[in-house]
Amino acid sequence: MASLHKLPIVVILDFGSQYSELIARRIRETNVYSEVLPYTTPLDKILALEPKGIILSGGPNSVYAEGAPRCDQRLWHLSIPLLGVCYGMQLLVQDLGGKVTKSDRGEYGKAALMIDDPTDLLTNVEDNTIMWMSHGDTVESLPEGFNQLAHTDNTPYAAIAHPEKKLYGVQFHPEVHHSIGGMAVIRNFVYHICGCEPTWTTGAFIEEAIAEIKAQVEDRRVLLALSGGVDSSTLAFLLHRAIGDNLTCMFIDQGFMRKQEPERLVKLFREQFHIPVEYVNAGERFIAKLKGVTDPEEKRKLIGYEFIKVFEEESQRLGPFDFLAQGTLYPDVIESAGTNLDPVTGKRVAVKIKSHHNVGGLPPNLRFVLVEPLRKLFKDEVRRVGKALGLPDEIVRRQPFPGPGLAIRIIGEVTPDRLQILREADMILRQEINRSGLYDVLWQAFAVLLPTIRTVGVMGDQRTYAYPVVLRFVTSEDGMTADWAKIPYAILETISNRIVNEVPGINRVVLDITSKPPGTIEWE
Length: 524
Ligand code: XMP
Known about the structure:
Elements: E1 9-14, H1 20-29, E2 33-38, H2 43-48, E3 53-56, E4 82-85, H3 87-95, E5 99-115, E6 129-141, E7 147-151, E8 159-162, E9 167-170, H4 182-193, H5 202-217, E10 222-225, H6 230-243, E11 247-253, H7 261-272, E12 277-281, H8 283-289, H9 296-318, E13 323-325, H10 330-333, E14 369-371, H11 379-388, H12 393-396, H13 416-436, E15 444-449, E16 455-459, E17 462-475, E18 483-484, H14 489-502, E19 506-511
Parallel strand pairs: 1-2, 1-3, 3-4, 4-9, 10-11, 10-13, 11-12, 13-14, 17-19
Antiparallel strand pairs: 5-6, 5-7, 7-8, 8-9, 15-17, 16-17, 17-18
């Protein structure tokens, strides 16, 4: 069986840039497989992958600083094509005898790239194209045998090459969205310089993943905790294709889903996808556990703990199982360089959503062997695989929903009445956001109930004294940072009117206009 890692691969060595993962995603967009490894990876481990090309990422350090991260010197003398990006290029230059210094004027943001040699790496890149720069150091002189391919107003050596040795460097970031000609540079490198064929496709992935699952699982049984999100649903489709009835999907309803979602999910799987689902209605257990609990962290812990208990009981009832399927994705398993520094504070910053944010929250010591067929994929690739397997848009495009669900959107104690009120308000918000066509533009749109306060209102001739609800709309790339979304007033007005008129228990609607940071997306 051909295995995924035998596809032609371009390896990215990560020197701590916030864009290292993005380079991998961009390469994969050209249908060439790519992985990110820390710059400290031993050369023999890199060579064992038989890379068709190597990219050295950017990074927050200066190559001339003491203790700056370096790579194995033998890298410069392999006959494997190599592209240094920003820090990576400066390292290449310095190690081969050129000079890198601090520049008088750093260059941050967009810059026009003037092409001196329109061939090779810069084929099809227009002269004067906009590229995105972010550097305080600059290459002052080139090592022997290198040519200048392009410059900008502030940077004489914006792109360089030693074509015979297949060594290349760019000072700009071709991977970022603002670099207009960036994808052309990446395509030139992977196709023409590295000689890769576009073999990394959704179809190829599905075929290989199914073969790998079959080989791993054989005729044994796999348990999958379904949440209704795109990852666990795609996983269910993939596994069902591979092993059919040896897959058991279990959906634990904690009682904190949005209105009609548990019913809808079970119906879709059973009736439309013909994938059996064990529905576990555990609502009463969870609400009993949360009685009197108001502290957000305690709520989360109790929900997580109860989830594991229910999961263990139910898996025993339905088992025995040999394997547990998990929707682990590539960003969860990437080993990063660990040198991500905040450019403003200089402090190390986390690059990923914390693992407790991943659906399920199962402890690592469960006695199952794991099946993780999505572990090579980025989120957008999971969506494509899900779509190719026949997942409907309503799941493929579904906004993220936290594991503890509505329980962390009711501030203070969670009670059945409060859940009921929040579900109704949230439903109205969703209906109007769907109607407006904004659903796909937003990372998340949801309501938060504040039942620890009541405010005075007037409806008809009646004084009311009821709860406020908060509307939360955010845009985001990855949930790590987020902007509050500027929803048109007319839509806000409709949502507000409908909620106050249609949901008993709510008499006031307020809007959250906090970005992340300093706020978080969820309220608890
Ligand atoms: P915060 O509130 O930390 O959330 O800004 C960032 C993103 O993570 C989601 N989130 C969770 N997802 N389990 C999850 O699966 C959780 O416990 C959890 N808590 C927050 C949140 O909805 C947002 O998209």
